Automatic annotation (TrEMBL):
Designated name of the protein: AVT3 protein
Record keywords, A-Z: Membrane, Transmembrane, Transmembrane helix
UniProt cross-references to InterPro entries, sorted A to Z: AA_transpt_TM
Pfam families recorded: Aa_trans (PF01490)
Membrane topology classification: Multi-pass membrane protein
Keyword Metal-binding appears in the UniProt entry: no
Localisation: Membrane
A GO CC term attached to the entry: vacuolar membrane
Any one GO MF annotation of this record: L-amino acid transmembrane transporter activity
Transmembrane segments: 20-40, 75-96, 183-204, 216-242, 262-282, 336-354, 360-379, 391-409
Ranges of residues in domain Amino acid transporter transmembrane: 2-407
Superkingdom: Eukaryota
Length: 412
């Protein structure tokens, strides 16, 4: 869970906090963590209840949605999972392209984007992702190193300025968002980091802590609190160093500098390029099964969703598969089209992608569907406080999705 939270989206948090305000940014971040824990508790209960009712082991998100909401709920989970997969990989490409452009100012953003897409396209044709999965394990280290380098470089660049001058930008910032559009835009990157619930079912299935009631939720609380504190300190520090006009990728606000700064940027790009085909596989697996294996789709939905929740470093995706490249023309062609789709979405600003994907798809899977299913399946046995918490979570999720959709459509 720490690896899933500590991702490239963290570099957009200073930009998000600049829109949410000094107090609003912290409130949004830790509220998302707290509401996320409520949602995790409900998902764990729903998973257990579904496995008991259906006499099954390893129930997935789609299994729960089908039992509680019917086939429409299962289809909704599939669609939102595809949106998460395409959106996250598009954000990866946008981050890499922007970072490469900062390293090579003579290259246009489009050129850097197409170069990154040309690199990852062959990796989507791989049959076995074992090596890429191992390389992506360095992701958390790369992100933390990027945080430290950003703070160190920003501090060095402003070393000659008095502390009062550096803090003046913070004093001029409002405590909360200036408009509800700013609220929606700023909330997106926060949700992108903390609404990781779409991958928790395979984690709960494989985690030994799930055998003890409440243990998994306790460990999730540690992960969410730790990640929340680190990301909050990074966001506020960067606001003090770079001011309210910080860009959507704060690392790119650091000027051309030392060799280790360049090396850190390249390490982050390499990590995302290795992670791209692993996250990409989540969405394309669902599409390929629906297009090329319609006769086996109903019986393989459990297996398909298990793949759709995988993120790099959390699974052994591809292990035991055949080595080499895929040679089926129809599948290669489909993957080419899906990569092209991520390139098209990556034309949007990095922060805009985070706002749409995090504020819409991930919030639906984290703050809307879990309380809705819990109220429908377990509402009759809930206590007063648990019932109130789920109702509040549902209303908050619907409002966040509505705000994010409006902000995304009005800004494009």
């Amino acid at each position: 869970m720490l690896k899933a939270i500590m991702g490239a989206g963290g570099f957009a948090l200073p930009w998000a906090f600049a829109r949410l305000g000094l107090v609003g940014g912290g409130v949004a971040l830790f509220s998302s963590a707290a509401l996320g824990l409520i949602s995790i508790r409900e998902l764990a209960a729903l998973k257990r209840q579904t496995e008991i009712q259906q006499n099954m082991v390893g129930a997935t998100y789609v299994d729960v949605a089908r039992v509680v909401l019917g086939e429409a709920g299962a289809v909704a989970v599939y669609g939102l999972s595809i949106m998460c997969s395409v959106g996250v990989t598009s954000a990866y490409l946008a981050f890499v392209a922007s970072t490469l452009q900062s390293l090579f100012p003579g290259r246009s953003y489009s050129h850097c984007l197409l170069s990154a897409a040309g690199f990852v396209l062959p990796t989507t044709w791989l049959r076995d992702f074992a090596m890429l999965s191992k390389l992506s394990q360095s992701g958390t280290f790369a992100v933390l190193l990027g945080y430290l380098v950003t703070i160190q470089s920003g501090s060095y660049a402003q070393a000659n300025e008095p502390l009062a001058t550096r803090l003046q930008g913070l004093h001029s910032m409002s405590l909360g968002p200036d408009s509800w559009q700013d609220l929606a835009q700023g909330f997106g990157p926060v949700a992108f980091l903390f609404c990781i619930h779409f991958l928790l079912f395979p984690v709960m299935t494989s985690a030994r802590s799930s055998a003890t009631p409440g243990k998994f939720v306790q460990l999730a609380a540690v992960a969410f609190l730790s990640a929340g504190m680190v990301n909050a300190m990074f966001a506020y520090t960067c606001l003090a160093l770079f001011g309210s006009r910080v860009s959507s990728i704060v690392l790119n606000d650091v000027g051309q500098g030392t060799l280790y700064l360049v090396a850190t940027k390249l390490l982050l790009c390499a990590d995302l390029l290795c992670s791209y085909p692993l996250v990409f596989a989540a969405g394309r697996e669902i599409v390929e099964r629906s297009l090329f294996e319609p006769q086996t789709y109903p019986s393989s939905q459990k297996e398909a969703l298990k793949d759709s929740h995988k993120l790099p470093g959390l699974t052994n995706m591809g292990r035991g598969g055949e080595a080499g490249l895929l040679v089926e023309p129809k599948r290669c062609g489909l993957r080419l089209l899906l990569v092209a789709a991520t390139v098209i979405v990556a034309q949007l600003d990095f922060a805009a992608i985070l706002s749409l994907v995090g504020g819409v798809a991930q919030v639906c899977l984290a703050f809307v569907l879990p309380p809705l299913m819990a109220l429908r399946l377990l509402g009759s046995i809930m206590g007063r406080w648990r019932l109130a918490a789920n109702l509040f979570l549902l209303k908050t999720g619907v409002a966040a999705v509505s705000f994010s959709l409006f902000a995304g459509l009005s800004s494009n």
